[in-house]
Amino acid sequence: MKLSARNMLKGTVVDVVKGATTAHVRLDIGGATITASITNEAVDELGLKAGQKAAAVIKSSDVIIAVD
Amino acid sequence: MKLSARNMLKGTVVDVVKGATTAHVRLDIGGATITASITNEAVDELGLKAGQKAAAVIKSSDVIIAVD
Amino acid sequence: MKLSARNMLKGTVVDVVKGATTAHVRLDIGGATITASITNEAVDELGLKAGQKAAAVIKSSDVIIAVD
Amino acid sequence: MKLSARNMLKGTVVDVVKGATTAHVRLDIGGATITASITNEAVDELGLKAGQKAAAVIKSSDVIIAVD
Amino acid sequence: MKLSARNMLKGTVVDVVKGATTAHVRLDIGGATITASITNEAVDELGLKAGQKAAAVIKSSDVIIAVD
Amino acid sequence: MKLSARNMLKGTVVDVVKGATTAHVRLDIGGATITASITNEAVDELGLKAGQKAAAVIKSSDVIIAVD
Questions:
Q1: CATH number of A7-52: 1.10.1060.10, 2.40.50.100, 3.40.50.620, 3.20.20.70?
Q2: Is residue B31 over pLDDT 90?
Q3: Where are the domains of chain C?
Q4: Which CATH architecture fits C7-57?
Q5: What is the pLDDT of residue F47?
Q6: Do B3 and F57 touch (CB under 8 A)?
Q7: DSSP classification of residue E50
Q8: CA dist B27 to A61, B35, B37, E43, Å?
């Protein structure tokens, strides 16, 4: 499967914290950590757990640029 | 200024392509490139150009997780 | 590849309109049409054209519910 | 009221699961199911419950295209 | 029509700038100006023009909080 | 720090409601209230509490226009 989303950052799952409906997944992408808010159902379906290889997919229209 | 957005990836602007209203900015974050779609006005106001230090700010609710 | 995004609507590309930097892709998902705004680069990389099978991927946090 | 959002998918609420602050609403749009993550307050204000007619509203900039 | 989106800011259209595919609409909400990036098709369909009453609809998951 | 996001609405925090993982923060921007869904971690890191000065940052691609 190929995606139109321009950004795919590969990494390793650091931890998964499930809430009542929403989970937070942190990904070590080498030099930085990415946090994703996803559904608990997605965590279960993808079997996400610490140590697993995964990627962060981000649409370019969701990226803000910041400068000092 | 501090932001609630969980993800701030620091890097260097690779290039800036302005369209009619929407610009694409690519950022080298070291090992990966991030593309952002922002307004031409933002490019002008921030004075974005190749070689400049900048960061990509991404809200965690905009991050999708992918696994093979 | 499996995605955390909860919504994947399969269909056929109706048309692709490229702008200066941003393209609009319409997808017939059977009974409804989905419009996506994506980068011209994504259109080229995926080789999107009318008649092609494709899917619309949408994160559940990007869905608003409306009632009459 | 008319909206600039290009995508409005009409359907019927399948179920509503409220969490601590965030609810998941599933909509049967005929041939596919859409999941929306919305606030508990929105669920209460709209009186969302299974069997109710509703629509999923999605901005085109939030749609990713996938191809095999 | 009622929406799950928590934020609806009423105002008056200041100006509409159409690009090749994407338009920028500015709304005076009284004390502040909101910029929206929407499709040219939406501008046409809603007949948006300066002086018109309109509202900005924003999902709460798309709002970032900033503090000094 | 300067941001590419076109919309920054200054106000005062009305209340903060933390859930299991996701918090809702309401901001009085003078004449209107903005609700933001952010992570509990962001609430803690920014020390958000009622009465505090804060701003809502919103990317223009996340704004929908509505007309009657």
A1: 2.40.50.100
A2: no
A3: 7-57
A4: Beta Barrel (2.40)
A5: 98
A6: yes
A7: T
A8: 14, 6, 11, 31
Using one digit for the tens of pLDDT, what is the confidence trace for A3-46? Answer: 999 999 999 999 999 999 999 999 999 989 999 999 999 999 99
Residue F64 has pLDDT above 90, yes or no: yes
> Model pTM greater than 0.95?
yes
The minimal CB distance from F39 to the residues B6, B25, B42 is found for B6
- Does residue F39 belong to the interface with chain E, where contact is any CB pair within 8 Å? no
DSSP letter, residue F63: P
Interchain CB contacts (distance < 8 Å): A and F: 42
* CATH code, D7-53: 2.40.50.100
Query: B7-58 sits in which CATH class?
Result: mainly beta
Tokens of E66: 């900033």
Name the residue of chain A whose CA is nearest to F3's CA.
A66
Look-up of token digits 């105002």 = E11
Tell me the two tokens of residue A36: 């994703």
Query: Neighbouring chains of F at 3+ CB pairs within 8 Å?
Result: A, B, D, E
C14 and D CB contact within 8 Å: no
What number is the average pLDDT over the span B8-30?
Answer: 98
Decide the pairing of beta strands C53-58 and C7-18: antiparallel
- Output the six-digit token pair for C6: 């909860």
Instruction: For residue A27, give Cα distances in angstroms to A67, B63, E42, F23.
Output: 24, 11, 37, 21
